[in-house]
Design a protein that fits this description.
alpha/beta; D-Maltodextrin-Binding Protein, domain 2; 2 domains; six-stranded mixed beta sheet; 20% strand
Length: 336
């Protein structure tokens, strides 16, 4: 009896210390799945912005025991904080820029797999103090504030400019900043300024900078090129070892994530409350930003086509942007 009581106390202590959310009922195990008969806890990572905004319903459901998987969530300001944890086995699934996923695939020699496209374009060109920015060509001769050097924002802008006969660094200058909030503060102090910002920070800026207007939707400008690709901001990648060991848990995650993004798109007011709950942005900002965040869960052949086309565009522009070579078919997890 004493031994049993000791074991129960030890178990209670372990559960108290565990910083994750566990599901109410065990996840069913499918044939061929190597998962143990216990619920799988997915160690999930997202960035502070749209990539995590699409997850908030999933996280809230997990807290209330309404998900099949358990989820331990880590949010970071940049992909550089998440990718080492994924490579080292400390996280199982992360949301990162599409080109970062391709670079990881190359660097780990196939150690990660692409599960889904999670966010389409969320980049916008905003202007204060005038209406001089009317299309991509009108950016010629301007200096732009932006974040995302070496990532999707830089590559997307470089490509769009090139398709209009302009060169980044020659025809259009960029002052790269580390945080969108820094750009918002700078624009508030100036009479005239142009910046490239992602949602939800466009909405944040509109609430703090008088006279700010959205001049260009870069996703719409990309689509006008009709080149067979789409502007993709973020994707979901998993450690291959985790996906191989827990395929049913990965399928369940994709189903629960898809439901979460659908909820956020259909119920921005309710989802906004959860966005604030998880420390991303205030609910008032989130409610306005969510409809502009292009949250999706694209899997399977549609994912391969959309992401592959986008990566090919980046590769043609700058091969090192995707790790020096286009990822092969092993990059795409097609078991959804």
């Amino acid at each position: 009896m004493k031994k049993m009581i000791s074991l129960l106390l030890a178990l209670a202590l372990a559960l108290t210390l565990c910083a994750c959310v566990t599901p109410k009922t065990p996840m069913p195990i499918e044939d061929g799945d190597k998962s143990a008969a216990q619920p799988v806890t997915v160690r999930l990572g997202g960035l502070k912005g749209p990539t995590s905004m699409g997850m908030v319903k999933l996280l809230d459901d997990a807290e209330s025991g309404a998900t099949e998987n358990g989820y331990a969530f880590t949010m970071a300001a940049s992909a550089n904080e998440l990718t080492p944890q994924l490579v080292q086995g400390e996280l199982d699934i992360v949301a990162v820029p599409a080109n970062v996923a391709a670079i990881l695939y190359s660097q780990t020699e196939g150690g990660v797999e692409l599960l889904a496209a999670g966010t389409l374009g969320v980049l916008y060109m905003v202007e204060k103090g005038g209406e001089t920015v009317t299309d991509v060509a009108s950016l010629s001769g301007k200096t732009i504030y932006a974040t995302g050097k070496g990532a999707t924002p830089e590559y997307a802008l470089t490509y769009l400019l090139s398709q209009h006969g302009l060169t980044l660094g020659t025809d259009v200058q960029v002052e790269w900043k580390s945080e969108p909030t820094e750009i918002v503060a700078l624009m508030a102090e100036q009479e005239n300024a142009v910046a490239m910002l992602p949602q939800p920070f466009v909405t944040v800026a509109q609430g703090q900078v008088e006279g700010l207007r959205v001049a260009l939707d870069l996703s719409a400008e990309w689509d006008k090129l009709d080149n067979g690709s789409r502007l993709i901001t973020s994707v979901l990648v998993a450690r291959k070892a985790f996906a191989d060991e827990h395929p049913a848990a990965v399928r369940t995650f994709l189903s629960e994530y898809a439901a979460s993004t659908d909820y956020a798109n259909a119920n921005p007011a309710e989802a906004a409350v959860l966005v604030e709950k998880y420390g991303i942005v205030k609910a008032a900002v989130a409610e306005k930003a969510l409809p502009e965040c292009n949250l999706v869960c694209i899997t399977g052949t549609d994912m391969k086509s959309a992401v592959g086309g986008y990566l090919q565009t980046l590769y043609d522009l700058k091969p090192e942007a995707v790790g020096g070579a286009m990822p092969d078919d092993g990059f795409y997890w097609m078991d959804a």
